[in-house]
């Protein structure tokens, strides 16, 4: 056993999971390992290769999550050359709302031989949007009943929440609903597997399950109004015992200690949503500091001292990230995803060949070409709704759009227009918060895009007309999760007694940051006004053509 102590953050994303080994005393990452999910995102077929999935489905296989634990933790211990005895705690961060139906012992229903070809027995990933009709119904009934919880979620419930996904199971596969003795956030489920204790997180419950610290879950009458069979949903399949961040979810059991090389009894912290974990990971400890967690999508997290009602926010939860504060969440459903879409579908072979000859990736090539363009030079304007809209419209039936294309339009111009669209979307989020009494003083960013794409971050600084600071760690959510692991262990065991103490020591930003360029700010101000005009037209009732086209597509595909 060495003198230094370590914590592990298990970071579960959309395509892969990773373990990050962190030195508790400094916050330095000493080793990390990544495991792509064996089954990936299942949006066309189940693993049997025969069962085809309908439009807007996105599933995963729960075995993939435990493979991450079994493979990556031994890898980081080996890479760092340390003994598992020196790891004092671990915690997880996870995409949400990502849910799994299980039996009473926590065994996933998709493991059952007779259910391997039943889509509803698998994990429904956060971006499973096929439950949007159910989300719309929940919003409609909540409005009719005057349910106050609706205001805490920006006035609408989305398909990314727990209850719409559960209602879809009930509507389309009632036998699965009946056999599911537990329906869990997979972040909570992984902890359950590691410790044998079922302790559901207040972060998942507050942001994605319509739970409130004072009020609890919606009433039985509300669930009964959705469907009489759901009257006792919480008691029968969820849990009204919710645990705050910073607590121990339990201790690592003998089985998973043997599989990972960690010692039995290692503290396991209550889980947190991946984006939210970035708040302590970057060192944010006070209100007014907005964090942008940038990846396939972007999540915006902000601490506040009061509970305000903000249209289109994804949630406001007391103690939702840092104890003693309300934590607001907003977001954009499509960021990195639509850059990838462009590369896969709109880039000619000549560009791919040019990138290969230059020894760089296609995204880097497009960035280098786009960087030569001045703001407004492309003549293009895009809407960033290629995967629907989170904030402020909470409408996943909205779709992407690009205006201004001609026969001379080039891929790098489209690439830059999509980047600019995401910056406009973020600026709209900032405006929406500030118009509704939630002040924003500083901008922070983390994630692969913030780390690698300097052009994009400069565009964000220019569009928002604000300075932007970048996380010093390239694994900020994982670092935040490791902090919660250290807090779960406690100071007596070499960790910390509060997440504030951990964040002050372990969370860091880079010295370099982005400043707005005045001449770019002036141009982007004009383009942003055009963006808002288009947004109002297509999202606020001016023209529902996006929804009509989507409905027609679904009708034709039946």
Automatic annotation (TrEMBL):
Gene3D superfamilies in the cross-refs: 3.30.420.40
Pathway annotation: Carbohydrate degradation; L-arabinose degradation via L-ribulose; D-xylulose 5-phosphate from L-arabinose (bacterial route): step 2/3
Top-level taxonomic group: Bacteria
Catalytic activity, reaction form: D-ribulose + ATP = D-ribulose 5-phosphate + ADP + H(+); L-ribulose + ATP = L-ribulose 5-phosphate + ADP + H(+)
InterPro entries, per the entry: ATPase_NBD, Carb_kinase_FGGY, FGGY_C, FGGY_N, Ribulokinase
Coiled-coil blocks: none
Occurrences of domain Carbohydrate kinase FGGY N-terminal (ranges): 6-279
Pfam families the record matches: FGGY_C, FGGY_N
Alphabetically ordered keywords of this record: Arabinose catabolism, ATP-binding, Carbohydrate metabolism, Kinase, Nucleotide-binding, Transferase
Signal peptide (UniProt feature, chain positions): none
Family of this protein: Belongs to the ribulokinase family.
The protein's name: Ribulokinase
Organism from which the protein derives: Diplocloster modestus
Gene name, Swiss-Prot/TrEMBL: araB
């Amino acid at each position: 056993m060495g003198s230094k102590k370590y914590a592990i953050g298990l970071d579960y994303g959309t395509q892969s999971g990773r373990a990050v080994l962190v030195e508790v005393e400094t916050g330095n990452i000493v080793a990390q390992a990544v495991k792509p999910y064996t089954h990936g995102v299942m949006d066309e077929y189940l693993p049997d290769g025969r069962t085809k999935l309908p439009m807007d489905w996105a599933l995963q296989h729960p075995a993939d999550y435990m493979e991450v634990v079994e493979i990556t933790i031994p890898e980081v211990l080996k890479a760092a050359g340390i003994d598992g005895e020196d790891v004092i705690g671990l915690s997880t961060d996870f995409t949400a709302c990502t849910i799994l139906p299980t039996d009473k012992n926590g065994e996933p229903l998709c493991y059952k031989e007779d259910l391997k070809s039943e889509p509803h027995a698998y994990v429904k990933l956060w971006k499973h949007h096929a439950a949007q009709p159910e989300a719309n119904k929940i919003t409609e009934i909540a409005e009719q009943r005057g349910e106050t919880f609706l205001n805490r979620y920006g006035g609408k419930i989305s398909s990314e929440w727990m209850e719409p996904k559960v209602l879809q199971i009930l509507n389309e596969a009632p036998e699965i609903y009946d056999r599911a003795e537990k329906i869990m956030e997979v972040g909570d489920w992984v902890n359950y597997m590691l410790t044998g204790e079922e302790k559901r997180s207040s972060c998942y419950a507050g942001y994605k399950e319509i739970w409130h610290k004072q009020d609890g879950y919606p009433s039985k009458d509300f669930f009964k109004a959705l469907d009489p069979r759901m009257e006792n949903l919480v008691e029968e399949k969820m849990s009204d015992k919710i645990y705050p961040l910073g607590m121990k979810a339990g201790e690592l059991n003998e089985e998973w200690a043997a599989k990972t090389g960690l010692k039995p009894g290692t503290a396991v912290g209550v889980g947190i949503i991946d984006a939210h974990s970035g708040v302590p990971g970057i060192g944010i400890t006070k209100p007014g500091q907005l964090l942008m967690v940038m990846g396939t999508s972007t999540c915006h997290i902000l601490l506040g001292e009061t509970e305000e009602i903000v249209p289109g926010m994804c949630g406001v939860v007391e103690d939702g990230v840092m104890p003693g504060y309300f934590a607001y969440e907003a977001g954009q459903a499509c960021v990195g995803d639509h850059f990838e879409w462009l590369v896969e579908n709109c880039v000619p072979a000549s560009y791919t060949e040019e990138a290969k000859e230059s020894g760089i990736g296609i995204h880097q090539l497009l960035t280098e070409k786009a960087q030569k363009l001045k703001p407004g030079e492309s003549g293009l304007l895009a809407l960033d709704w290629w995967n629907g809209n989170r904030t402020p419209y909470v409408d996943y039936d909205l779709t992407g759009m690009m205006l201004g294309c001609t026969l001379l339009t080039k891929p790098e111009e489209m690439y830059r227009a999509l980047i600019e669209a995401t910056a406009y979307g973020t600026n709209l989020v900032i405006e929406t918060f500030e118009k509704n009494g939630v002040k924003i003083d500083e901008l922070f960013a983390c994630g692969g895009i913030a780390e690698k794409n300097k052009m994009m971050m400069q565009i964000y600084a220019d569009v928002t007309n604000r300075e932007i600071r970048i996380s010093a760690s390239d694994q900020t959510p994982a670092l935040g999760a490791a902090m919660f692991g250290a807090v779960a262990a406690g100071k007596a065991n070499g960790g910390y007694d509060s997440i504030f103490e951990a964040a002050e020591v372990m969370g860091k930003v880079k010295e370099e940051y982005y400043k707005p360029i005045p001449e770019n700010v002036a141009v982007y101000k004009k383009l942003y006004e055009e963006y808002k005009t288009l947004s109002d037209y297509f999202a606020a009732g001016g023209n529902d053509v996006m929804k009509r086209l989507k409905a027609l597509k679904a009708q034709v595909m039946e």
